Amino acid sequence: MTVHSSLQPYVDAWTHATTAISELVSPLADGEWHRASGLPGWSVKDVVSHIIGMECEGLGDPRPIHTLPVDLYHVKTEWQRYMEVQVDIRRHHTGPEMTSELEYVLIRRGRQLRNENRGPDDKVRGPLGRQVRIEDYLRDRAFDVWVHEQDLRRALGKPGNLDSAGALVARDLLVERLAKVVAKDAQAAPETVVVVDVTGALDFMRTVRVDKDGRGSVDGSVSLGPAVTLSTNWETYLRLATGRTTVAAVEEQVKVEGDQKLAAAILRNFAVTP
Fold first, then answer.
1. Domain containing residue 92: CATH number
2. pLDDT in the model for residue 2
3. pTM for this prediction
4. What is d(CA 115, CA 7) in angstroms, rounded to the nearest whole number?
5. Name one Pfam family in it (predicted).
């Protein structure tokens, strides 16, 4: 094994999720490719196009030269424009063309990752041309493909893998960002403690603490008498934290105890992905 030990879990999670995606879309009929994915402006085919495009960039393939149509209502930011190029150039591809390209790209990318011999602190080119640590880049790729696997599963009515290796990567990444949600975005007062209790396929409890200087941190210790306790199931947590649903749409799946005003502010800022 040439992959650094700290990178291997992300390579494994990426491999598991991309294999699942390939198995999900390979048998799709033409109409199923056009199902809404739940992401603004994107069909099932668009989600797969995004995955293909990002893995092509990971391989170092040149980005396509393409001018986006002016009527894409869901494209509003530089980040969205960047991501949309790889999607829009494939909008007229057929299902067989999509599955063939996906299979070829994943074979190439899988071979590249198996032969990776750089260390976690080495830099690679990320989205928008930014230089990022390879560990951060691979973690983000594992997170991205697993979250999109779940988008596809919801769109196609084929749930599963909510407790897979990719799910664990997603949990840890999303939980890390709770500190900013509570301390900065929701502006919790110094010395505030908030507990998030999640059940389901992944079962965990995390405590967010805001110190006297207003900085947030997250740990797994139990806290007595928190200002707020938020309880929900893992799939609802995932959908809220990745902006796939609104609080109003899932309010029956979210139990709030304690300071209702602070809880509302936390939930308003719960989505932490672009």
1. 1.20.120.450
2. 65
3. 0.95
4. 12
5. MDMPI_N
216 in Cβ contact with 227 (< 8 Å): no
1: in domain: no
Q: 209: which strand partners?
A: 193, 217
Instruction: Please indicate, yes or no, if residue 167 is contained in any of the structural domains.
Output: no
Q: Alpha helix (H) ranges present in 26-77?
A: 30-33, 44-59
State the Cα–Cα distance between residues 154 and 38, nearest whole angstrom.
Answer: 8
Q: Which of 85, 93, 106 is nearest to 30 (CA)?
A: 93
The amino acid occupying position 112 is Q
Q: Within 10 Å of residue 62's Cβ, how many Cβ atoms?
A: 7
- The residue among 95, 109, 181 whose CA lies nearest residue 142 is 109
Same domain? For 129 and 259 the reply is no
Instruction: Specify the pLDDT at position 141.
Output: 98
Query: What integer pLDDT is reported at residue 108 of this predicted model?
Result: 98
Neighbours of 129 (CB within 10 A): 8
**Which structure tokens are listed for 62?**
């040149």
Residue 3 in contact with residue 113, Cβ under 8 Å? yes
Residues contacting residue 28 through CB under 8 Å, at least 6 positions apart? 44, 95, 156
Whole-angstrom Cα distance, residue 96 to residue 124?
32
Q: Note whether 151 and 37 are within 8 A (CB).
A: yes
CA-CA distance, 182 to 202, in Å (whole number)?
22
- Expressed in percent and rounded to 5, the helix, strand and coil fractions of the chain are 50, 15, 35
* pLDDT tens digits along 28-63: 999 999 999 999 999 999 999 999 999 999 999 999
Backbone phi and psi for residue 262, each to the nearest 5 degrees, phi listed first: -65, -40
How many domains, in total, are found in the chain? 2
What six digits make up the tokens of 183?
A: 């301390």
Domain that holds residue 189: 173-268
